[in-house]
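User: Reviewer 2 asked us to show a designed sequence for the structure in our supplementary figure. I'm pasting the structure tokens here. Could you produce the per-position amino acids so we can include them in the response letter?
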């Protein structure tokens, strides 16, 4: 019989191993604590939604929807997609669950996997993870400033303070059409240098040429008019007010008039969090977000403004300070020296674990030396030895692997769980 071939994960999909999940836990824990102080509650959303939700929200002509969605027909012929982002889902949930009926305000945050069929490379995966937050029902500049301050404080807290905030204003339904026309004129004048995709974009959605990744198009687009020069008075005022509030709280930012986002729903404030630190390379956007005042209406709801952001957890883990210590090994490993000692060893491990102590238990059948080697390799502080003498005495020998001190037949196997746990803790601290 031939040996079955191993099965690898799908391209762009990866395993996150304990060293990394430990860092993620710290990042997510800090987010839960801090987002709470800004009034956000956590929402858990489906990973699968109707494709139409993203087509409408993110935009038919965006790369995300046009090229990168994992979309397929379900058995009942519904077109569904693995979510490429969560803002659309939050707004859907906000409408569907009637959150919109109160004072229209909601603050929701989420943590979870997103899916985009991009070309995988370091820091870019087809399944990646975001920590995001959405604020519904607020159109005042204070909301923008609050959100940006939250991001800044959070990045500082998790040791990613070196990441920069890039800020822009993209205009709104009033001034955007003016800008769109200026871009169309510019693009038409440079048609020969633009890729076929951009030719199509110029007809359907000229703003998308700003997001084209083809080098030739990028060179041309660098000279294109910027949104800021076409802002109407209310948009310019809004932007100035956001900036004044950020200045007041000393939140550093850099106005980047060329900043565009890969999603269509943004109006007015748009931003990105960029890290130049080692590790990320070309994929240097740690997060992004902005305002989406028309989105709720676009998804069939009333005219409710909104804004939000998402941080890429995979990338954030690469730039944030690692947690202080390496993951701890078990407090103790229990070593049965013979088969008869396996059941008492298991009993002891269960009682210690029930008391909340991290302990391991090894199978019998190896020499004491080999078993002690295993315990050291697992970075345990104590080795609990159960051999024939220990079984006869009803007391285990405990070796402190840090000091190499042996306490022969010292641990009373008949003691109560709390007594056992206390004894072990004291011994480990000794
Ligand atoms: P986004 O800029 O598309 O925005 O994604 C936010 C972040 O997710 C990026 O800055 C990046 O760190 C991470 N990310 C995106 N794609 C990948 C990938 N293929 N691999 C690894 N990380 C990735 C949004 O998704 C918006 N929904 C943000 C938002 C919320 N806007 C308003 N509210």
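Assistant: Here is a per-position design you can include in the supplement:
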């Amino acid at each position: 019989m031939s040996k079955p071939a191993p099965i690898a994960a799908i391209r762009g999909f990866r395993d996150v191993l304990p060293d990394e999940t430990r860092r993620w836990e710290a990042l997510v824990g800090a987010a839960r604590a801090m987002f709470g102080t800004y009034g956000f509650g956590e929402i858990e959303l489906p990973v699968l939604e109707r494709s139409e939700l993203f087509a409408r929200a993110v935009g038919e002509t965006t790369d995300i929807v046009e090229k990168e969605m994992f979309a397929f027909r379900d058995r009942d012929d519904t077109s569904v997609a693995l979510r490429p982002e969560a803002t659309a889902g939050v707004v859907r949930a906000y409408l569907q669950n009637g959150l919109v009926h109160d004072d229209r305000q909601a603050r929701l945050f989420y943590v979870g996997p997103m899916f985009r069929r991009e070309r995988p490379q370091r820091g870019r995966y087809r399944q990646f993870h975001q920590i995001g937050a959405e604020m519904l029902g607020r159109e005042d500049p204070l909301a923008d400033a609050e959100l940006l301050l939250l991001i800044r404080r959070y990045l500082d807290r998790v040791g990613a303070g070196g990441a920069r905030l890039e800020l822009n204003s993209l205009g709104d339904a009033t001034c955007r059409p003016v800008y769109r026309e200026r871009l169309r004129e510019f693009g038409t004048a440079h048609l020969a240098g633009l890729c076929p995709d951009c030719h199509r974009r110029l007809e359907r959605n000229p703003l998308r040429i700003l997001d084209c990744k083809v080098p030739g198009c990028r060179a041309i687009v660098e000279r294109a008019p910027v949104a800021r020069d076409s802002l109407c008075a209310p948009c310019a005022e809004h932007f100035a007010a956001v900036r004044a509030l950020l200045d007041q709280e000393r939140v550093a930012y850099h106005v980047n008039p060329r900043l565009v986002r890969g999603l269509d729903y943004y109006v007015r404030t748009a931003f990105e969090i960029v890290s130049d630190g080692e590790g990320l390379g070309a994929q240097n956007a740690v997060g992004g977000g902005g305002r989406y005042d028309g989105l709720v209406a676009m998804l069939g709801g009333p005219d409710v403004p909104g804004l939000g952001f998402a941080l890429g957890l995979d990338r954030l883990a690469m730039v944030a300070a690692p947690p202080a210590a390496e993951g701890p090994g078990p407090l103790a490993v229990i070593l049965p020296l013979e088969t008869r000692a396996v059941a008492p060893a298991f009993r002891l491990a269960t009682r210690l674990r029930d008391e909340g102590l991290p302990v391991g238990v090894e199978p019998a059948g190896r020499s004491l030396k080999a078993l002690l080697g295993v315990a050291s390799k697992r970075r345990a502080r104590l080795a609990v030895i159960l051999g024939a003498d220990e079984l006869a005495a009803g007391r285990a020998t405990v070796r402190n692997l840090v000091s190499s001190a042996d306490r022969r037949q010292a641990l009373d196997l008949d003691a109560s769980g709390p007594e056992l746990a206390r004894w072990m803790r004291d011994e480990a601290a000794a």
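For the response letter, you might also mention the following. The mean pLDDT is 93. Residues 24 and 317 are 7 Å apart (CA to CA).
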